[in-house]
Fold each of these.
Amino acid sequence: MTEQEPRRRLILMRHAKSAWDDPALSDHARPLNRRGQRSAEALGQWLVERGHLPDQALVSDAKRTQETFAGLHLDIAPDLDSDLYLAEPPRLLSALQAAQGHCVLLIAHNPGIAALAEALLADPVPHPRFIDYPTGATLVADFPIDSWRDLEPHTGRAADFITPRELTD
């Protein structure tokens, strides 16, 4: 690795579109709908095609985040964390600071995930959907750090950003 290459890469993903057709289900238990399932698969293919391959995945234990991760078809097991469910940016940052991988995927929920994405980058992503971070939105950011313990706000550089609609419509 040269000094120009990132030392840590983060893939920050909001879960794909969830189903709302069963009012008896708790929010935590809501699964993906068909569009969400297609989006997760498209995002997984996009990650592979772009070479954004995580070696660690931190995933909220909600059903829709677990199904989003499963739809990516990655060759790693997720680290499920109940504290990531509807977590605010400080909790998400804390989870990242405990990460061990070189390229870490974090799948969580809005509004925390959108606020974290904005807070971590030195410069905002020039994409019309970055600020609202729709379902399935995925940011790939690089950080000039040797350990996730050193992760701080406003230090990341966006390497990529995509929404599922760009892949499936």
Amino acid sequence: MSKRDFYETLGVAKGASADEIKKGFRTKAKELHPDSNPDNPNAESEFKEANAAYEVLKDAEKKAAYDRYGHAAFEGGMGGARQGHPGQGNGDFASAFSDVFDDLFGDFMGGRGGGGPRTRAQRGSDLRYSMRVNLEDAYTGLQKTITVPTSVGCDKCSGTGSESGVEPVACPTCSGMGKVRAQQGFFTVERTCPTCSGTGQLIKNPCTECSGAGRTEKNRSLSVNIPAGVETGNRIRLSGEGEAGLRGGPAGDLYIFIEVENHTIFERDGVNLQCRIPVSMVSASLGGDIEVPTIDGGRSRVKIPSGSQSGRQMRLRGKGMPALRGGPTGDMFIELAVETPVNLTSRQKELLREFGGIEADNSPEESSFFSKVKTFWDGMKS
């Protein structure tokens, strides 16, 4: 009886791409699953047929030979059939499906990893440390020593986890693979080896200091350089300063997250600073000079124009924060807040009443506003 065309078996067109062939086989594998075909006694043989087709078409060389010679490419006239060749359809079903399982799901389950044993060394975890700095330190930068609780390599066993430096042996349960396989119907499922926890090796004589882990818990002091211009949310990475690796594996990294505290005088906006300066009604009316603080600890003299109102802003160039990765320094913006006097003496009240009596168009904004109000009321009446 003539064999069925491999492309037809997988439900794809001739000349289909590798992705189309794999997709077609996945669809067939689902269709032929025994749970979906309880009344189909031919499910296993049909799956073998699909598997045989896939084994040929997924291989570029075999596919090229099949496209040219058909089934004859794998029969005696074309070099003979190999024992257990996929084209013969006589391989063990569970073994065949196990291979397919690895091919389809190896990326998610860890695969076979080339068939070799897993390495016992494992990279250490990354660590996070939150650091608060004030705005002055963010302006100048600083060097700070921090204490980090972490895992470090065991000194007694030099990180090997084994007493007296004795080398670990391959796990007898998984033969050093780190995984074991269990047959479930047509499927072969891989799980982490329960004996070695996936390391693939066992330590017969574990170190008494670290119990075979190759690392111990300890507080470490580290000197950290905080660059000028850091902001809240900035992250500093210290390579290899995280948790020590398991059984001699490489250490993880330490990430320091910066939080800049709020300041009592300045408010930060990127590289710029805002500073609200209260001024008396007299100074705002007559004008004058005031001294304002700067983030570097200095002072700057600022001239207030006469007739200044609350909310007026003035800029001091280059008096802001430095840029973290180069670039020009920010500016400092001063916002005036004209203060109404309180706790007036009798003489002060008398003078203000006198001023109010002789006031002549000294409040243009007030006059403009109430002029608009009068127009609004007149319009409502009409």
Amino acid sequence: MQGSKVSNHVLSWYRQTKEDGIQFLVSHRDRSRPVYGEGVGERFISELEEATNAFTLTIGNAEKSDEGLYYCAVWYKSQYIFGEGTEIKVKGK
């Protein structure tokens, strides 16, 4: 994140698929427990990294159903600002 400290904001992750549209995954604020979307488990790990001023998402034991376009979002000046998105594809079984 540029122009502001990541720890000063509520940060969220979303996944978009052709089948399901956009799904809220997790929201996180510094020094608070993450809040998960409906049906989303703790294998989606969001972390605020103050040293690099970044917000990351780790997907534990990724599955084919995790494929999609992932967006981070920051609550800033009473609105969500979304990142460009990152496409995730899962290889294997």
